[in-house]
Amino acid sequence: MPQLDQIIIFPQIFWLFLVFTTFYIILTHYLLPLFVKSIKLRKQVIELNTLESAKVLESLSHNQDLLQKSLFHELQSIKNIIDNNNFLYISLEQNFFLQAIDKKIGNMLYDSLLYCDEQVLESIFLECKVLNLNFKLN
């Protein structure tokens, strides 16, 4: 067999080691640092995003705590007013004004319940005008 001939096997082994050594040097000194740099940059981006999201979460929790404290304070003041029976008597004109406000609030609640219900919104079928073949431009 000519592949296992002792005369040509040593030059083949020499060229094999030379080619693979050259290939290894090129990979480790030129291409591998590019890949490592890319991976390090990705890790840094992930760390920065994690830190930023932690800061945002912390500010949101701080704002939520402030809002809860403010809400508790306001509810406590309302409770004190109700407990002390410090209600002002409303004149007839103010009563009419309050009835108009109550009517507007009732209409708003009715509309929000009617049109902002998730089940109702999911049951409404909407078609895009671009995809609607029956739509005609004027």
TrEMBL record:
- Would the keyword Transcription turn up in this protein's UniProt record? no
> Where does the record place it?
Mitochondrion membrane
Q: Which residues form the ATP synthase YMF19-like N-terminal domain?
A: 2-75
Q: Does the keyword Transmembrane helix apply?
A: yes
UniProt GO BP: ATP biosynthetic process
* Protein keywords: ATP synthesis, Membrane, Mitochondrion, Transmembrane, Transmembrane helix
Kindly name one Pfam family recorded for this protein. YMF19
> Which InterPro entries is this protein grouped with?
YMF19-like_N
Q: Which GO terms describe its cellular component?
A: mitochondrial membrane
Which residue spans traverse the membrane?
A: 12-36
Q: What is this protein called?
A: ATP synthase F0 subunit 8
Organism equals Asparagopsis taxiformis
Q: Which gene encodes it?
A: atp8
